[in-house]
Here is the input.
Amino acid sequence: MPNAPALAVAVLLLSAPASLADPTPPAVSTGSWFDWQQLTGDWGGLRSELEQSGVHLNAHYVSEISGNPVGGYNQGGAYAHEFMVSADLDSRLLGWLGGTFHLQITERAGSSLSKDKIHNILTVQEIYGDGQTVRLTQLSYEQTLFGGAVDVEAGHINTENDFASSPVYFSDPIYCDFQNNAICGTPIAAPVNTPGYVAYPASAWGARVKLYLAHDFYLEGGAYEVNPSILASSNGWKLGTGGAEGVATFMETGITVGDRPGGYLGNYRFGAYYDNSSNPTVTSQISRYVAPDLAAVSNLPAMLRSGRYGGWLLADQLVEQDAGGGIAIFANLQWGDKASAFLNWFGNTGLVRHGTFPGRPDDTLSLGFAIASINGSVGAVLHGLQAEGYRVPGVSQESMIEANYGAEITPWANIRPGLQYVFHPAGTNELRNALVFDVKTVLVF
Here is the structure.
């Protein structure tokens, strides 16, 4: 069974002592099953007892079904899913304060509409990727110090949790109110441009420190192992450093505005990275993203270059709020080193309306747009190959737009039907624009 390791961990945690008092009372599932916060409820009070003792167990199922009746390389459909289980253990169980042990395990399976049918870069199912397999996603220890002014985490972690991550509005990470991977769960350029950005659900050895220099201002830095081999489906539980190529360092600083009762919350962030590994130049990525048939071309440049770098600007702002919810908008820009980045620059923007119609306070209406500019070095190489007689496309930009409606059927079940439209798949004019119908389902256990 794919979730057997996770189930064993859960059984072990259920035996943890329940003698410590948690200062935050847990959410108790009462009343109708449809009103419970989790599908499995409070387990006869056991979940509440565990949370009071400092043991927090969570699980979810996410599925994404997509189909493109028009456009792309071919037409068809695809299904992908993810099961996740996690455990957060308060260090008070061991007698000290301010610490948390994190464990997270994921299982992914299914197929990719973008990979199999559309052949585009901004993939239409964010739940597909990183080797469809059972994977150790997090195994770490986090400690707060100096009254919460410093937060440190180290272990097997992913960069996505710490840098260029999704802001939270109305208890909801708004980037993942979308299904396209250009927006959910992080703006896509950094993961595409450097293997040092370890995106969920993969993980690598790393550490980060976050300093809250004021209530509304922080500075964060981190370092992560660069090891492309961890993405292989056979390496979901890899803890060794075999295949490591270097270290990627990240920094981010940000300010929060309007964080007060009745205020209009906003977050404004700047970040950058440097990956010191020796890696193939941007031209060697052509066979991965643009022209798969070129993988066997012997004269395709594959020179090594030491180092990649890039950065981002992220902004999000609550612009309207009322008794039914509110509207949050976001706009993000990322860029990369022209000598190594596949995407020279990337941007996305959108809005999420939380609370849509009378009696639907937890539904969402989302509209997003993203555009990716392919490095001119790629076009130059393709032009040279065309001159040699290879049938390869010219490339420039790919963009997409997505609109969806998230219906909260119960607090533990959300169904989000939507539409996506992909302009210039793979950044070429040789593939027709693709219309995508999709449905995302989330169950919280």
Notes: The two ends are 18 Å apart (CA to CA). Confidence is low (pLDDT under 50) at residues 1-26. The first helix runs from residue 4 to 14. The helical segments are 4-14, 46-53, 113-118, 189-193, 286-289, 376-387.
